[in-house]
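ok so I'm stuck.
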Amino acid sequence: MKYLALAIGLGMSAAAVLVIPGSGATASTEATTVVDRPHPVANKYLKQRPVWKQCGEPSLRTYCAKITAPRDWANQYSGNDIQLAVSKVAPAKGKPSRVVFGNPGGPGGAGLGMAPYLAGQAPLQKDFLAVGFDPRGTGDSTNVTCQGAPGYTMDARDRDPANLALVAAASQLSQSYCDRQSRGLLPYVNTAQTVQDLDLIRQLLGFDEIDFVGYSGGTWMGAYYQTYFPEHVGRFVLDSNTDFTRPWLDTFAAQPQAFERRFREDFATWAAKYDSKLHLGSSAGAVLRTYEHLRRDLKKQPAVEEFLDGTVKISYDQNTLDQIVSGDMYTKVDFYSLAIDLAFLRDLSEAQAKGGPRAAQNQVDALSLTRQHELVRRAARGTVGLPPMGRVVGEDDAEDATFTAVTCNDTPWPQGREYGDQLAARLGPHYPLVGWTMNQNPCFFWNRPNLTMPQPTGKGLPTTLMVQSIHDPATSYELAVSAHQRYAGSRLVTVTHEGDHGVYGGVNACADTIVNTFLTTGKAPAKDVTCAGHGIPAPSMPTPGDETGAGQPEYGDNAPLRRIAGFTKAVSGYLH
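replied:
not stuck anymore, here's the structure
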């Protein structure tokens, strides 16, 4: 019998997180090595000739290859090499005049699908070679793993000292699992190493400069590439922005407020508007109470159900519910599915309370196989962008492990349990969806490599185009504005009445036009620009025979990061 692991992870967030009086928290104090410039590339890496083979269906026109890179760019002759998986799509006719790289974020998101995704943007099809790659640690590149590391199965809202001790113990154990199984690669899974990998790919493809589209955690990668390789920077688009001008801590520190805003002001308001169809509450407050009551009931009595003739077991408890809700905040495409699932879980919990486990299982058994498959898929899926710190669930441990390695390795974190506990206690009451999980974070106990990277400033660079929706839950609009103000020469495209994480490529026609004009002509707006969002569509009622709404496509037409993930799945696995 296959059981799905539904471990909830670490959500960390807050404002003004660098100092908490009396906390005793300090950043790591080991001696650091400042990596402020790229290392010259050894000839053995420049002389390699990648062997390109078709990956995916012929209609995708995508070719993939493995490229050899050093495990540590500072020690290229150590004999410890890694493999990087790279994808490309050339114009159907003629020779490309420019190259555009893409990264879907994470950090740790596999990116082979970026090539067919970018090549599918009509304005880019004529002149661009589109390139994607799986960053070191993830996807079809050399992997890291944290398999077996303890998850956060406890309730984040439980402030009992024994529960807090369990949270700290799980955090403290994470690195030993990751390090032991990653064959020495873990300390070298960081952005300073990854951007040099990216530039090696540039050199092997024969281009003097690159254009770049980075989403979510990819905005961090893009800004650091610009910082390390300014002479090779072309037209850079940073979409759904981390605060790449400050430590990782600041980006995650803003998430609880942003997730709560998205949940309360967007989803709950929308669900209440369509209460006659969704039946979750006739006001935003009533919808939120439905969630809170359901969370309380699932904590008191989890619903452990078998799906698909007993081949999959899912335990619906308060953590599973939080994971489902927060995971569906990234794109409005998921709002209808979330509403349907909340109603299902409410009915499931009520059946169990009245008739016991057998009555609840009968509810599941009465579902169509299509609906059961949908519930299993949604329970196992990961996020489509930057998750709350450590709340990474799903089937791909390499992506999760790379996320942890990059975010913990790149920049300093306050060390110790006390800091995280106080942070959670301060944020949880105001932003309960994510705020209580702030102490669930391996980075508070992480032994960082000797690394200090230069702070990106944008000085001396061509214009950088930043795109941001105002209710983005994962990368806060306020922090994007703050980063924009500190990043010289940047222009900000703000999408109002919108909260999708990942905008370019179908979410907003106005923003798409600005981005495509910039990528194809180099012309950026003379000043910051605002685009009006299209709002959240009414729920589409199920077609006959699809009584539960399970027929929604896995990759919604207006969810760029979902489409990229679909392309990545389609072209991965051909290099093994």
